[in-house]
């Protein structure tokens, strides 16, 4: 299993508004973060828990569940991944953040690396990559390559909208990585944009166009 499309009325509603022409920067930011939050809830369903003993309210000993062993690092892909990050951190407030900077060359559609700052103990953590758009899949694949080179063993991803071309590319390159996605769209156009998609997520989040 690599690409998991989450069918949920709240996600469908919010993604529908994100696609509207003329959406304000404020509303786009709020919704991208909310979708990040809902996808986190689904993606973390697979985390295992340990039983630990606590002293309960009445002084008795009680066995309760805690998230097991490995900790999480959230990995936003700059820039647009930052737009989902707050929603993710609302549910995993103690997660460390590792940043990967990539942009997609407009002509070749290849990801161009410009920065990374990844937690030192990445080998001990589950990485949760966040980026709103999965088009050719090049940016996700480059980020997964980088994290694996640094020793990361368990990787998941969250994404607002994907194209089948990118989903197939990730499945071929990294079948061990599960990506949770709010909507799988039709195809890429001749410029590499997702159809119907929502346009350029980074520009909408940062108000740069
Ligand atoms: O699947 P791909 O074909 O690699 O395309 C998807 C990438 O393109 C966008 O980033 P962009 O290059 O626009 O950078 P930005 O976030 O700085 O706007 C998007 O946020 C993804 O990172
Ligand atoms: O449709 C697309 C494709 C890549 N990046 C975006 O922001 N949107
Ligand atoms: Mg962009």
Automatic annotation (TrEMBL):
Needed co-factor(s): Mg(2+)
One Pfam family cited in the UniProt record for this chain: UPRTase
Cofactor: how and how many bound: Binds 1 Mg(2+) ion per subunit. The magnesium is bound as Mg-PRPP.
Binding annotation for uracil: 194, 199-201
InterPro entries according to UniProt: PRTase-like (IPR029057), PRTase_dom (IPR000836), Upp_B (IPR034332), UPRT (IPR005765), UPRTase/APRTase (IPR050054)
Domain called Phosphoribosyltransferase: residue spans: 7-208
Gene Ontology, cellular component aspect: cytoplasm
GO terms, biological process: UMP salvage; uracil salvage
Chemical reaction(s) catalysed: UMP + diphosphate = 5-phospho-alpha-D-ribose 1-diphosphate + uracil
Residues the entry annotates as binding 5-phospho-alpha-D-ribose 1-diphosphate: 79, 104, 131-139, 200
Activity regulation field: Allosterically activated by GTP.
UniProt pathway: Pyrimidine metabolism; UMP biosynthesis via salvage pathway; UMP from uracil: step 1/1
A GO MF label: magnesium ion binding
Keyword entries, A-Z: Allosteric enzyme, Glycosyltransferase, GTP-binding, Magnesium, Nucleotide-binding, Transferase
EC annotation from Swiss-Prot or TrEMBL: 2.4.2.9
PANTHER family recorded: ADENINE PHOSPHORIBOSYLTRANSFERASE, URACIL PHOSPHORIBOSYLTRANSFERASE, CHLOROPLASTIC
Family statement drawn from the similarity comment of this UniProt entry: Belongs to the UPRTase family.
Task performed by this protein: Catalyzes the conversion of uracil and 5-phospho-alpha-D-ribose 1-diphosphate (PRPP) to UMP and diphosphate.
Protein name as it appears in the record: Uracil phosphoribosyltransferase
